[in-house]
Design goal:
The protein has helices spanning 15-29, 59-67, 69-78; strands spanning 2-10, 35-42, 49-56, 82-92. It is 34% helix and 36% strand. The two termini are 21 Å apart. By secondary structure, the chain is an alpha+beta fold.
Length: 100
C-alpha cells in the first residue's frame, strides 16, 4: 500500500474557500483507479494549514493520479489559495495495524 501526503498553508482566512474548491476538484476528477481512501484535515492549532492524505493500491496508480487528475483537475482549482507553502510526500506503507 502507498500513501500520498500533502501539507500546505493557505492564505490567511482562505480555508473555507480552499476546502470548497478542493471538494469540487475531487468531485470533478472522479474516483481515480487505485484510490483506496482520502482525507482532508485542518490543523487545530493553525487553522490556515492542513493535510490531504490519500491511500493507494500501487505506486503506479498514485503516479497516474499525480500526472493526471491531480495536475489537470484539482491543482488548478486550489493553487491560488497557497502563498507558496505546499509540499507533497509519497510513501510506501511498511506497517499497517488497525485497532478497535
Amino acid at each position: 500500500m502507498f500513501m500520498r501526503i500533502s501539507w500546505g498553508r493557505v492564505d490567511p482566512g482562505a480555508w473555507e474557500d480552499y476546502e470548497r474548491a478542493f471538494r469540487k476538484g475531487i468531485e470533478a476528477a472522479g474516483r481515480p483507479q487505485g484510490l483506496m481512501a482520502r482525507t482532508l484535515s485542518r490543523d487545530i492549532d493553525d487553522p490556515n494549514t492542513g493535510y490531504s492524505i490519500s491511500w493507494w493500491d500501487s505506486a503506479e496508480s498514485m503516479e497516474a493520479y499525480e500526472t493526471g487528475a491531480a495536475a489537470d483537475v484539482i491543482q488548478p482549482r486550489i493553487q491560488k489559495f497557497f502563498g507558496g507553502a505546499f509540499v507533497t510526500n509519497r510513501l510506501e506503507i511498511v506497517l499497517d495495524e488497525k485497532y478497535e
